[in-house]
Amino acid sequence: MESIASFFLEHQNFIFLLVLAVFLGVEVIANVPAVLHTPLMSGANAIHGVVIIGSIIVMGHAEPGDYLSLGLGFLAVVLGTLNVVGGFVVTNRMLEMFRKKSR
Q1: Domain check: are 41 and 71 in the same one?
Q2: CA 16 to CA 61: how far, in whole Å?
Q3: Cβ contact 8:15 at 8 Å
Q4: Which domain range does residue 48 map to?
Q5: Which tens digit of pLDDT belongs to each residue from 62-84?
Q6: Confidence of residue 103 (pLDDT cuts 50, 70, 90)
Q7: pLDDT-based confidence at residue 50 (cuts at 50, 70, 90)
Q8: What pLDDT, on a 0 to 100 scale, did the predictor assign at position 77?
Q9: Which of 89, 87, 84 is nearest to 42 (CA)?
Q10: Cα–Cα distance between 72 and 81 in angstroms, integer?
Q11: Is residue 39 a contact partner of residue 91, using CB atoms and an 8 Å limit?
Q12: Shared domain check, 72 and 96
């Protein structure tokens, strides 16, 4: 219990910044109009390319016997790729609603 208290005391500024960022993010997302939610979310999903690159770097620097790092890196690559592809699929479906229909 003492180690947890010392951790919070040592990292008090970072924890405050994290809590502030969470509250700010919730307020920003809650005030986005419904019309803009889908385009913003599909664009935000494309940012997960950074997650993919980071997880590839982690997997590259992992020791050959470190199965935890390799497994988490592989899982991050798979989930990040699904999120990026899903974001682009949603964007494509949204843009198809605005195309003229051919007769």
Answers
A1: yes
A2: 31
A3: yes
A4: 34-103
A5: 898 889 889 988 998 999 898 88
A6: low
A7: confident
A8: 92
A9: 87
A10: 14
A11: yes
A12: yes
Q: What is the separation, in whole angstroms, between the first and last Cα of the chain?
A: 71
How far apart are alpha carbons 86 and 102 in whole angstroms? Answer: 26
Domain total of the chain: 2
In the chain, helix, strand, coil percent, each to 5? 80, 0, 20
81: exposed, middle or buried (Cβ count in 10 Å: 0-12, 13-18, 19+):
middle
In this prediction the pTM is: 0.58
Q: Are residues 71 and 86 in the same domain?
A: yes
Calpha distance 74→66 (Å, rounded): 12
| Segment holding 23, helix H or strand E | helix 12-30
Q: Are residues 73 and 53 in the same domain?
A: yes
Closest CA to 55 of 38, 42, 72, 41: 72
